[in-house]
Design brief:
171 residues; single chain; mainly alpha
């Protein structure tokens, strides 16, 4: 580091010590220095600047390719997301339809079971009424007219019992 400062100081003092008549003149060292300068520029251009520029250009191209790939992946992801949302909504609609159909089938079956039970209970009630009517007719025929007159209380009790039996079987 000290050597660089000494070198610069030495060049500056030599430049100050030159006579002023030679300041703007062109001598042979100027062309040598110009040649060295051009050679250094060309050398640096070929081995330093051009590889750096190529590296920068390659990075720019690679970055733009990656950006395009990311954009296309973004679009693909959006399309896939939209497709899955559509599938989910279709499945929800399908499930809703299936559940509605099953509910309707269950309601129909329940109505059929209730209707069948009502019909069976009505048939059972009618059978019970017929049996009671036949029992009543047979019990009345068993009684004789004169027993009826004598045993009115017993008859009224039996009628009450029979009517209670009818009520119980009907209910």
């Amino acid at each position: 580091m000290k050597l660089i400062f000494i070198f610069i100081f030495g060049i500056c003092t030599n430049a100050l010590s030159a006579d002023s008549s030679n300041v703007l003149s062109v001598d042979s060292t100027f062309f040598i220095e110009l040649g060295i300068f051009i050679f250094i520029i060309l050398f640096l251009n070929k081995f330093l600047f051009q590889p750096l520029l190529n590296l920068k250009e390659n990075r720019d191209i690679e970055t733009s390719v990656r950006i395009e790939r990311a954009k296309s992946m973004d679009l693909d992801a959006a399309n896939i997301e939209e497709e899955y949302k559509k599938r989910i909504s279709d499945f929800k609609i399908e499930i809703e339809k299936a559940s509605n159909e099953k509910l309707l089938d269950a309601k129909k079956q329940a109505e059929l079971v209730i209707k069948k039970a009502k019909e069976e209970s009505l048939i059972a009630i009618e059978d019970a009424r017929k049996n009671l009517d036949s029992d009543l007719v047979s019990s009345i025929s068993d009684m004789q007219i004169h027993d009826i007159k004598i045993n009115q209380d017993e008859v009224s009790k039996k009628v009450r019992e029979i009517s209670n039996l009818i009520k119980e079987k009907v209910s």
